[in-house]
Amino acid sequence: MKKITTYRHKKVLVLGLARSGVKAAELLHELGAFVTINDKKAFAENPAAQDLLEEGIKVITGSHPIELLDEGFELVVKNPGIPYENQMVQKALELNIPVITEVELAYQISEAQIVGITGTNGKTTTTTLINEMLNAGDKTAHLAGNIGFPAAGVAMEAKKDDVITMELSSFQLMGIQTFRPHIAVIVNIYEAHLDYHGSRQGYVAAKLRIFENQQADDYLVVNWNQPELRELITQAKSRIVPFSTKEVVEAGAYVLDGNLMFKDEIVGQQQDIILPGEHNLENVLAAICVAKLEGQSNETIMHVLSTFYGVEHRTQFIKTLNNRRFYNDSKATNIISTESALKGFKEPVVLLAGGLDRGTEFDELKPFFKNVRAVVLFGETKHKIARVATEAGVEHIKIVTDVEEAVPVAYEYSEPGDVILLSPACASWDQVPSFEVRGDLFIKAVQELV
Questions:
Q1: Final residue in a domain of this structure, among 246, 276, 305
Q2: What's the rounded Cα separation, in Å, for the pair 260 and 411?
Q3: Do 249 and 367 fall into the same domain?
Q4: Is there a single domain that holds both residue 95 and residue 114?
Q5: Any binding-site annotation on 126?
Q6: What is the CATH number of the domain that holds 40?
Q7: CB 149 within 8 A of CB 106
Q8: Residue 383 and residue 138: Cα distance in Å, rounded?
Q9: What predicted TM-score, i.e. pTM, was given to this entire model?
Q10: DSSP character for 85?
């Protein structure tokens, strides 16, 4: 890592811990800053704060005392999940104290090149595919960011010739200053996180920050299927590399007569891709763009595409049982994600869905139920989705208690050749703490089928 002196002897407040906050505090401490951490969780129940205290870092836990900002901090490093409406963040901004997120620190000290990936859906799959393609060739690549590996920690370890493949949320991108990925990827942009950003405009603006510091020798890989994105990137200084499943884009990646193309070169055959669905085809094309820009061979790229079964909880293939294929798409916490999953299968589908009620109706799903043999529903939204399924003419509709009960019921409704798909179209918080837990419960129930 670069031994920068920017923070030596400067007072820095790390607001909120979790994994990214811990790494930010450790990095700043190593760089010679006078670090104070402030986390809402009580000290006795906060092992991360206890460990940092032992390292000689000042720790304040149990609340966010606004008077703490009277101590003359020169920087606040904010946990991405803490909203800007938080009184500590608001006060810091009023005092003209810069507020950044940990990815900005990672960029400042990274010796490795950064590939940054953002978007509403498909970020994690695309990030993982890119990382696999780079590592399968002649690169050493490291996953980082919103994918679960704190960027600062990865940047501290990555070498000069390595690549950091960094998934970036809108929350993280709101807190950058100089962050400049050599290759930026925008997988897509839909509507999300309006409770955090206040409006779709605010959400989109945060996403677009991924390329605001790029220069003419950088690259911006962008989804050409979305006319909105074509308009939004007109101010980019970087070189545009498009990808599209719908048209030939001569400067990027596309599909032509069953061939996966990059510019005028055949990379491989579409039929060799393991991942199902058009949405995953977009992810694949985005990853091909980055891999080719990084000099990876077609053989390396196709090896990954022919062996990559998906990321956990994202249209993840689980097993085949009696000629029924099971897929875990628990990460589908919104309607668009479930639409994409349903579009990805030509076979009849038995759909498991339902979850937290955010006041949404599900009529947008109706056209995508044409190929659905049965729906098995649970959670707060079960009756809402049942109404839509009824109106769509779905033959079998069953209400159950939870995802564990749904699995054997779905199997009973299925026939040989069917896909049994968990794609809830809702968050999980009405019943379980995360989509990962929900997905794990689904997988466990599938494995128990005989």
A1: 305
A2: 35
A3: no
A4: no
A5: no
A6: 3.40.50.720
A7: no
A8: 52
A9: 0.82
A10: T
Q: Does 122 show up as a binding residue in the annotation?
A: yes
> Residue 434 sits in which domain range?
316-447
Q: What does the DSSP assignment read for 426-441? A: S-STTTSS-HHHHHHH
Stretch (H or E) spanning 283: helix 278-293
Q: Which of 147, 153, 128 is nearest to 275 (CA)?
A: 128
Q: Which two tokens stand for residue 352?
A: 């498991």
From first to last of its 450 residues, what are the pLDDT tens digits of the chain? 999 999 999 999 999 998 999 999 999 999 999 999 999 999 999 999 999 999 999 999 999 999 999 999 999 999 998 999 999 999 999 999 999 999 999 999 999 999 999 998 889 999 999 999 999 999 999 999 999 899 999 999 999 999 999 999 999 999 999 999 999 999 999 876 666 666 888 999 999 999 999 999 999 999 999 999 999 999 999 999 999 999 999 999 999 999 999 999 999 999 999 888 778 999 999 999 999 999 999 999 999 999 998 888 888 899 999 999 999 999 999 999 999 899 989 999 999 999 999 999 999 999 999 999 999 999 999 999 999 999 999 999 999 999 999 999 999 999 999 999 999 999 999 999 999 999 999 999 999 998
- The answer to whether residues 283 and 349 belong to one domain is no
- Whether 271 and 352 map to the same domain: the answer is no
Asked whether residue 424 falls in the same domain as residue 327, the answer is yes
Residues 298 and 335 in one domain: no
Amino acid (one-letter) located at 305 = L
The answer to the question of whether 125 is labelled as a binding residue is: yes
* Residue 310 marked as a ligand binder: no
C-beta separation of 305 from 291 below 8 A: no
What CATH code is carried by the domain that includes residue 380? 3.90.190.20
Domain tally for the chain? 3
The two structure tokens encoding residue 397: 């509709």
N-terminal to C-terminal alpha carbon distance within the chain: 52
Is 120 annotated among the ligand-binding residues?
yes
Largest CA distance in the chain: 68
- Pairs from 366-369 (Cβ < 8 Å, separation ≥ 24): 366/391, 366/392, 367/392, 368/338, 368/339, 368/342, 368/343, 369/342, 369/393, 369/394
DSSP for residue 58: E
Same domain, 158 and 42: no
Tokens 């030596």: give the residue: 8
d(CA 218, CA 238): 5
Answer whether 131's CB lies under 8 Å from 144's CB: no
Compute the distance between CA of residue 360 and CA of residue 362 in angstroms, rounded to an integer.
Answer: 6
Does residue 6 sit within a domain?
Answer: no
Q: How many residues does the chain have?
A: 450
Q: End of a domain among 48, 76, 100?
A: 100
Rounded Cα–Cα distance for residues 438 and 245 (Å): 31
